[in-house]
Amino acid sequence: MTMSEEAEEHPMPPPSHVTTPNSPAAPRNAAVRPSLADLTARAPVPSAAPVFDARGLAVYYGTFRAVRDVDLDIQRHQITAFIGPSGCGKTTVLRCFNRMNDLIPSARVEGTLLYHGVDLYKPDVSATEVRRRIGMVFQKPNPFPKSIYDNVAFGPRVNGTRRNELDDVVERSLRGAALWDEVKDRLKSSALGMSGGQQQRLCIARAIATEPEVILMDEPCSALDPRATLQIEELMAQLKQNYTIVIVTHNMQQAARVSDRTAFFTTEVSQDGDRRTGVLIEFDATETIFSNPADERTENYVTGRFG
């Protein structure tokens, strides 16, 4: 699911690539926080610049440094895969991209993470707005205990979509998730009665219903059977034509099949104790990572010698 369901006291304007009616003007003399759209529009970024640019990114939980020294960029309309052994910080880094780590009181992020040239962690950037633009699909399908229709319509309703427009939004989103033909005759049925693979595609439909630019996927196929996994992988290949996708996966074959670029993370033992910190080892084109990696640790992992 995405975090677009969160309520926000001051709704933000829609993303710049979405056409909707104008929002009501703010009261005169009211202090107006600049929207992320305003900030990204002002940023002098070349058209070929990455969607995300992380430099020296590190995440702490209290005094524990969970991951360090992450330098990578995420390109538009590509699928970027994060691979590595358990506990190496893949999901922690993924959650930085839509500020999900903000929900953990002890978490803090250091370094720089730019979204279209704007620092996502600037004080004047709304985390709720970030999550509307950068959707997320979680490891386990998590449909709401509502109808199929209401699951998809939930985010657009919160964002103010008119009732007479919801039918089109729901159909378009379900078609985008390759689910419409399977559910069009039972939209008012409970989403909890769907198969696991259908539920995960419903969560993808719910994510794209709010028209984000980026979709983050945290092991979206780990709870699915091979047939449902193949459907999700085929869907990702279609979705990247309109969205930028970042995926965490423990399935190296999946990363090799679907991604354009791959980042390999591993863990290092702290010199001050036995605690392990995640670190980015190598980031390159997926073909290079799997056929001719630059680092021996990457080769050992992708060939199954450890992990």
Task: Describe this structure as you would to a colleague.
The protein has helices at about 35-40, 90-95, 125-135, 150-160, 165-175, 180-185, 195-210, 225-240, 250-260, 285-290, 295-300; strands spanning about 50-60, 65-75, 80-85, 105-115, 120, 135, 215-220, 245-250, 260-270, 275-285. The protein has one domain: P-loop containing nucleotide triphosphate hydrolases (Rossmann fold, 3-Layer(aba) Sandwich), CATH 3.40.50.300. It is built from 11 helices and 10 strands. It starts with about 35 loop residues before the first helix and ends in a 5-residue tail after the last helix. With about 300 residues, the chain is an alpha/beta fold. The protein is globular and about 60 Å long.
Q: What summary fits the major beta sheet? A: 10 strands, mixed
CATH class: Alpha Beta
CATH architectural label: 3-Layer(aba) Sandwich
Query: According to CATH, what is the topology?
Result: Rossmann fold
- How many structural domains? 1
Uncertain spans, ≥5 residues at pLDDT below 50?
1-32
Mean pLDDT: 87
Give the distance, in angstroms, between the N- and C-terminal Cα atoms: 29 Å
* Sheet/helix structural class: alpha/beta
Q: What is the N-to-C succession of helices and strands?
A: HEEEHEEHEHHHHEHEHEEHH
The largest beta-sheet arranges its strands as 5-4-1-2-10-9-3-8-7-6
Number of E strands: 10
Mass-distribution shape: globular
Number of helices: 11
Helix % is 25-40%
